[in-house]
Design brief:
Elements (H helix, E strand, L loop, with lengths): L1 H20 L25 E4 L8 E5 L4 E2 L4 E9 L5 E9 L4 E8 L5 E3 L6 E2 L8 H10 L9 H10 L11
Antiparallel strand pairs: 1-2, 2-4, 3-4, 4-5, 5-6, 6-7, 6-8
């Protein structure tokens, strides 16, 4: 019996050593961001309002046709923000559900063209009392439960269902 246990112990040591030398390699490739395609300038009839917070007088809209889901699992969209004073800011952005980050790719100019952001970087989506539109988009429309929506239509339907009557006015 002692010989059997000794042989079993020796066998386990050699198999452990063999596993220690095994190089674990994954078939998965590192994440790579696909080249973003700037969308057309948004039309007011395509804008879907969404509620952000009672702490802001700004109104927030997503351009429905601009919503896309890339092979890189980034939800891209055009965001329009209208201030209480009437100023309109439009940006083309992306959200990564898996890492809870957002990125601003470009801002719209007055002549309805885009100005790309130099050295655009991914930033963490943080909960804030003010300026928390990316957090709301992440939680409620693009990444419910932390998982990316399957199709743009799913996000559009969620935006339509989440319509807030206080956000009714047209931005343009």
């Amino acid at each position: 019996m002692k010989r059997f246990l000794l042989a079993l112990f020796t066998l386990s040591l050699t198999s452990t050593a063999a596993w220690a030398d095994f190089d674990y390699q994954s078939d998965s490739k590192p994440w790579a961001e696909q080249q973003e395609q700037l969308p057309p300038y948004p039309q007011s009839e395509n804008l879907l309002p969404f509620y952000v917070s009672a702490t802001t007088d700004n109104r927030f809209f997503i351009d429905a046709p601009s919503i896309s889901i890339g092979k890189d699992e980034v939800v891209r969209y055009t965001l329009a923000v209208k201030s209480s004073g009437g100023a309109l800011n439009i940006s083309f952005e992306g959200i990564r559900c898996g890492t809870e980050e957002y990125k601003i790719y470009a801002f719209a100019r007055d002549d309805k063209t885009w100005a790309k952001v130099r050295d655009a970087q991914w930033k963490p989506i943080e909960y804030k009392e003010r300026n928390r539109q990316q957090h709301v988009l992440y939680d409620d429309f693009f990444c419910p439960g932390g998982s990316i929506v399957d199709r743009p239509k799913e996000a559009i339907d969620a935006l339509k269902q989440g319509f807030n009557p206080g956000n009714r006015a047209k931005p343009f």
